[in-house]
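G., the chain you wanted modeled:
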Amino acid sequence: MSVYWFLVIFLISGCSKGTSASSFPPANPCIYNGVDTCIQKLTINVNLANTHQTIHSFGASDAWSTKFVGNWNDVAKKNQIADYLFSMDTLSSGNPKGIGLSLWRFNIGAGSFEQGDSSGIADEYRREECFQKPDGTYDWTKQQGQQWFLNAAKQRGVKYLLGFAVSPPVQMTINGKAYGMGTPQFSLKPSMFNDYADFLVQVCKHFQSSNTPLDYLSPVNEPQWNWGSSPSQEGTAASNTDIANLVKILGTGLQSNGVNTKIEVGEAGQVNFLNTATTDNRGDQINQWFNPSAPNYIGNVSNLENTISYHSYFTTCPDNTLIQTRRAADAARTATNPLLQLWMTEFGVLGDICGNLNGSPRSTNIDYGLYVAKVIHHDLTIANASSWQWWLAINPYDYSDGLVYISSPAGVINPELSKTDGLVSDSKQLWCLGNFSRFIRPGMIRIDANINNQTDPVYSAGSIMVSAYTDAVNKTLVIVLLNEQASAATLSFSGLGAGTQITGGNFNAYTTSADKSLQKSVMAAGNIQLDPKSVTTLVAKYN
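Predicted structure as tokens:
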């Protein structure tokens, strides 16, 4: 047999998985020169020309621990927490010092803390101070612990600050409490809409004259829930009409007082409330507020940001639900006002996650971090959210919905023993969020990305997910890869096309996995390695 025909037979047989062990050539016919020719090569494809939303920010809230932690005497521990959340510095190892949040949420309290046990809220952590005293005067020394973190965020370069209220001050509510009445009714005295709006204006006016001006104000939170049926925290229901009326008064008040703060509306308890009508006038919020022909239209209100926000709770599994609910919300946004931005403003690991994960007890391993990353990925790529914000940045509880955790000085999970001091620890929830927040900076634009031209998000959700972002001014490309599989994967980058290429042919890679937390490495574009159950961010300049 000639050498020519030997090679032809070798190559043909080497592409067939069905060759038996006794056939010629022997052993594994898929292996040719040490390469498995039978495995489909995984290739990352991006398209610079096909752009989507501009990224605004990644954030988290100061509820409820900062009122205590911000007053700890141990400044080093407070700075450690602030660095985890806000720092853009780099350690000597090359690993990031923190996750570089670009937005921080400040909870404007309603006064349940001053009421003490009579507040009806058993957990002292969930009570909040109020700047306005019952006589209508203001005490700006209140919420000192929270203000410490507000300043820490600003000092570390956090770009945006947002004040959010979940209840009017107790002196303005119908029941004299910071929670509702367990009904769909807005817990604000009908005669005090102007008073509540003025309270929020005065808070924004005060901070505008400080080093920590509030860029945004969210006046109502999760209005679809009937707060008060089992009082556990501040909060109130509200109808779309109530919120529209309040926003109109608030817009006028901010403008007349020369306050630059922008109003952010929505904070829907679930994403489907944005586009699904309800019988109690608390759903279909995109249409009701941003359709010019709707009776509750507020799109022309002064100081209103062209955004509407939702929370990602209870819609994240199974994968088809995760995808379809967000696709429907984005479709409603596009049909009503294509320029309207969707913000995801609250999420944490709560309750049972389709039998796979649970909000309790406290779990901080990679399964929980990867789940968080999966939700972020779909909020960004399916809902086209331009901002993504976490709920409890600092968590003292035996729950999985925190980023940074505190325990007692002895290491016991006990909120009461953590009020004045405690141990600080990180989590994979923190670092997996950091795979996005640290590298996808405000103003970057999401672009098309897929693996092997696979465009079915349901398929990708169970295997490898990819999203990509660019800074066209600084010629920076960021790619975030989620490997849901229990096995490692090797991919290659297809390139940028049109004469554009990755500078030096390498990416800086940052991996979060079971034993890594944004660990830096360098990966060649043709040899990108994904750890099992991991999130990897690739960063490179291009020219």
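The chain has a mean pLDDT of 93.

Shout if anything looks off.
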